[in-house]
Amino acid sequence: MCIVKKYLFSAIMALFVSLALGGCSYGDGTPISSLEDSSMPIRRYDLLQVRYITTGDYSALQKMRTTYIVETRALVESLLKIGALGESGMNERILEYYEDSTLSTAIEDVTNTFANMDKENEQLRVCLNRMQKLFPDVELPDVYTQIGDFEQSIVVCGHRVGISLEKYLGADYPVYKRFFDEQQRKQMTREYMIPECVGIYLLSQFPFGDFQQSSQESRDFHLQCIWYAVNKLLGEDFYEHSVVAKVDDFMQSHKNMSLPELLDYSRREMSKASVASMKNAK
């Protein structure tokens, strides 16, 4: 199925970023920007970005490099790949990077499109409340928004999850037509934002087993288990029944199995499949 292959690619790329950022340290816990409503689960780091990029506001830059040091390091080192955060001239490099006409337009479009994110905040709040109950041993993600360069939709660093808003501007957004096929563009809409955010975070907490050695079937089943869990956290069948039907059937015969147990089970099955594959290869 096209949707499986597309999401598989996105999920794996997000995990690569997660692994790359695994050693990063967290900030000092300074209260979030006054630009934001601290009662909302999504922190608007993108507002600081835009303020610095469009006006050169030094106070915004200082906040990016102190309160949001983890997010800024992820942005410049792993998304934009323009060097290490502490390097000389990095402030100017950030400004120069976003002078690109396509990114400049995207910044304006993101600002207009996501001026209000009440719906996404409420959707994420519901998911986090359910996650706390259904995944009691999983630390809740700390979610923020950013503006990248059309490469990654979701990035993970420990329990911090960044949503790249420029990847959710709508299936008909002109830039997307230059770089993404029709199936990919269908998922580049704002309704996919929270499901992908939650799904990628779960995948970082319950990663693939031996990905290289396991079968395609076992990989797909693990992803389908992730989608199944996302549906439960959302409280709706966002990922269609036809996509998660195999998992639904499995759970019908394992009614006492929790969602964490399901995801652990699918990971173990991947490991078993990889061992069997290696034995057969011998």
Offer a quick outline of the entry.
By secondary structure, the chain is mainly α. The chain has 13 helices and four strands. The chain is elongated.
What would you note in describing this structure?
It is a single chain. With 282 residues, the chain is mainly alpha-helical. It is built from 13 helices and four strands. Strands 1-2-4-3 form a four-stranded mixed sheet, with helices on both faces. Strand 3 and strand 4 form a beta hairpin. It starts with a helix and ends with a helix.
Order of helices and strands: HEHHHHHHEEEHHHHHH
**Model regions low in confidence, pLDDT < 50 over at least 5 residues:** 1-35, 273-282
Strand content: 5-15%
Shape: elongated
Number of helices: 13
Mean pLDDT: 85
The class by helix and strand makeup works out as mainly alpha
Biggest sheet, spatial arrangement of strands: 1-2-4-3
For the record, give the distance between the C-alpha atoms at the N and C termini, rounded to a whole number.
31 Å
Helix percentage range: 55-70%
Per DSSP E runs of 2 or more residues, the count of β-strands stands at 4
State the major sheet.
4 strands, mixed
Secondary structure elements and pairings:
Layout: H1 2-20, E1 42-43, H2 45-55, H3 58-65, H4 69-79, H5 90-97, H6 101-113, H7 118-134, E2 142-146, E3 154-157, E4 160-164, H8 174-179, H9 182-186, H10 193-205, H11 216-234, H12 241-252, H13 259-281
Parallel strand pairs: 1-2, 2-4
Antiparallel strand pairs: 3-4
Helix pairs in contact: 1-10, 2-3, 7-11, 10-11, 11-12, 11-13
